[in-house]
């Protein structure tokens, strides 16, 4: 039997976009004491003539979340809601993107954890500012159809990526992609159930020197000569006189590994 895990409140994180759609700045709602996602279903009973009793048809959802945020000045979530309250914004000025991130529903993309997420445009209604109870009560109403995808969170930086189906899926590559040589790190290998970014391999090349390097007199053995395609370190007890277009510097870089079919994966 699979192990069961209780999903606790901190594993579902709500965010509102304090920036723009092009340059989002996700503000986590932290200082609320309630996080009930109200689905508000619309149903209709239809009494089909072939049935003894009516059938309930589910037509739509109209999701919203009510938050009572504690009035800590300086906390980003309170400051965001206070700005809406103070300016009595209406219409499009009262709309912000809502992002719900489900930390318990996760996968791996390379060495990064990714989390299932839903993003809506939303309308925020400030219901009251309870100065005695030190709470500002707001209602976040999700509008339209959510955008599904996944989120990465690194050093507090939240990045949402739209992806049909939510978490990324992977396809085994039978042929070498056109950009393999330059973008191999965008592809993956599989290690058990984990997909890891392809790692480059070291590659040595040799650069012909037109002038003496600054450290030639002390580090001449770090340089090379070439004969019939073979590069050999400069030898001797002291630096030889430098000659133009005779000596080489070794340059080690990282390049794509040789492609092998049915070995590498792309993220869909």
Highlighted features:
single chain; mainly beta; Pnp Oxidase, Chain A; eight-stranded antiparallel β-sheet; 7% helix; 2 domains
Describe the protein's architecture and organization.
The protein is mostly beta strands and 268 residues long. It folds into two domains: 9-43 and 60-167, Roll (Pnp Oxidase, Chain A); 169-268, no CATH class. Helix content is 7%, strand content 49%. The protein contains three helices and 18 strands. It has helices at residues 76-87, 180-183, 216-219; strands at 12-17, 26-28, 37-38, 41-46, 55-61, 64-70, 95-109, 112-130, 135-154, 157-162, 170-172, 188-191, 194-197, 201-208, 223-227, 230-233, 248-255, 265-267. Strands 1, 2, 3, 6, 7, 8, 9 and 10 form an eight-stranded antiparallel β-sheet that branches. The protein has a four-stranded antiparallel β-sheet with strand order 14-17-15-16, with no helix packed on it. Strands 4-5 form a two-stranded antiparallel sheet.
